[in-house]
Amino acid sequence: MMTIEIRTVGVLGAGQMGSGIAQVAATAGYTVKLADVDLERATKATSKIAAMLGKLVEKGKLTAEAAEATAKRLIPVAGIADFGDCDLVIEAATENVDLKLKLFAACDAAMKPDALLASNTSSISVTKLAAVTKRPGKVLGMHFMNPVPLMRLVEIVKAVQTEPETYTTIKEAAEKMGKTVVTSNDAPGFLVNRILIPMLCEAMFAVQEGVGTPEDIDTGAKLGLNPPMGPLELADLIGLDTVLAIANVLYTDIGDTKYRAPTLLKNLVRAGWVGKKGGRGFYVYDEKGQKVPEGFVGTITLNRPDKLNALNAELVGELHRVLAEIRRDKDLRALIVTGAGDKAFAAGADIAAMSTMTGPEAKAFGELGHAVGAQMETLAIPVIAAVNGFALGGGCEMALACDFIHASTKAKFGQPEVNLGVIPGFGGTNRLARRVGIGRARELCFTGDVIGAEEALRIGLVNGIHAPEELLGKVKEIAAKIATKGPLAVAQAKRVLLRGLDVPLPTANELEVQAFAALFGSEDQREGMAAFLGKRPANFVGR
Ligand SMILES: CCCCCCCCCCCCCC(=O)CC(=O)SCCNC(=O)CCNC(=O)[C@H](O)C(C)(C)COP(=O)(O)OP(=O)(O)OC[C@H]1O[C@@H](n2cnc3c(N)ncnc32)[C@H](O)[C@@H]1OP(=O)(O)O
Ligand SMILES: NC(=O)C1=CN([C@@H]2O[C@H](COP(=O)(O)OP(=O)(O)OC[C@H]3O[C@@H](n4cnc5c(N)ncnc54)[C@H](O)[C@@H]3O)[C@@H](O)[C@H]2O)C=CC1
Q1: What residues act catalytically?
Q2: Which of 73, 249, 378, 516 has the highest CB neighbour count under 10 A?
């Protein structure tokens, strides 16, 4: 029986696997139609693939002409209805049996009768998928490995119904994409995941039972068994939702409790911590997908929400103590300050407590506030204010003592002390003037006006504004990014930027050059430059 010649390939699902499959198929010379839940996602993925091809050109691994020709062969489409002229469709949507059954039926209806239909599923029965189509003989599994452009294997899974010609044609297509093929019959997990997933789950059980930390388990596996990644790093890369889905298929279809998923895995997925693609799993990742060691970012929450986190002696004294502890912590690389509740960062110094103060008492309180501000400014690590609501009076001043501020769109800022017959006593005059300029600082301090987040952004009081529910996540991302940089370098940058504000420019430049030179010879300087030259991420130790 003649089989179809493959010229146009449809890829359904433009996530990490679908994008990789589209890239290798287009590189192999196929015209590729890429679809996801909508055209926007498919277009975004296509642009990402084009950027990836650009990087290969920069690295000399692909010619500019080849990259351009490959990018031209990639066409984002709105959905399955556009697969009518495809000779092969490879489904790479989320690992969910009901979804895949639905997508297979829809693809079958849209595709021409002689076209082939493959699934990149990691575990779901291909026989079951074939059975919902009118072309069961033309269906099979085409299981690529992650990351697709780098991994050489494709596991072809024969459904019970798969015709020999379908297998041969797909094997040739996989080989044209530069892959080596192994063949599996249709059984839960096929060959590779039957072996891999129990191993990943066993590593998770070890964490769950407190046998070892994720870091020790991964290091043990890497150095003791020699795979390029540890099992928990690999689980994060695959996607914990995908690992859970595969584990569930193995457990349900084989029926042996040894395949059950660990509660820890279920909980991480419930929390939305699905691994590298979601920014957090067993490890935390920055937006470039680089691992951020945990424990490097600390958070202080001003916690008196019933009084809008107003600063009383107890709260400020506690802050003083905690900051002193943080100064001694050699592991922290960034600190976030935020307010409890959804209404305030801090609505100022406690007015009830201040109302009975004498001049000398007020002086002592002001000095305590300034001591806290100086503690934050002179910490070696950056301090970021996540302003989630009112930041008035002492609250605004506390945010100003942080290195920079991000705010929720609901945040409000002001120095309303003149309404109480006093002036800011915690740095609100001078730090505000340095942040937004003397004219704006004067106006805010003289009028007591309260401004919204947009205006605060416009005048440079805050660096960014975010939806309230996204604020802390965004600030954590920034802090996590800082935590991946050289801690000594960040500390020197913070020191020079602060001290340089108060001295003439030539002196500030001298400070800079001294700090620049002082970093040479540090382990971090050697590591940072060696990592760049070795084309690998740097692993800074803060020495
Ligand atoms: C003991 C002294 C402190 C020692 C620490 C040292 C710190 C550093 C010393 C430096 C001294 C100088 C600091 C400084 O620059 C001076 C100031 O900060 S003066 C204060 C400036 N802030 C304000 O004027 C804001 C006052 N608050 C408001 O205007 C409103 O609360 C606000 C518009 C923010 C919100 O209004 P609304 O939504 O209607 O909420 P409520 O008003 O009902 O507030 C709920 C609850 O919280 C209490 N509260 C709010 N702000 C303060 C405050 N600053 N002090 C004390 N209590 C506050 C409010 O009274 C309500 O409490 P209930 O018990 O429910 O009535
Ligand atoms: N992540 C991995 O390491 C590997 C995953 N696989 C398999 O590849 C498939 C995809 O996995 P990933 O790319 O990792 O997941 P992913 O979460 O990165 O991508 C899934 C994509 O499917 C899309 N999608 C969901 N519903 C859809 C619908 N109705 N129509 C069109 N698109 C839809 C999503 O929008 C998303 O872009 C799964 O079957 C998985 O088991 C196979 C090998 C390795």
Answers
A1: 397, 417
A2: 249
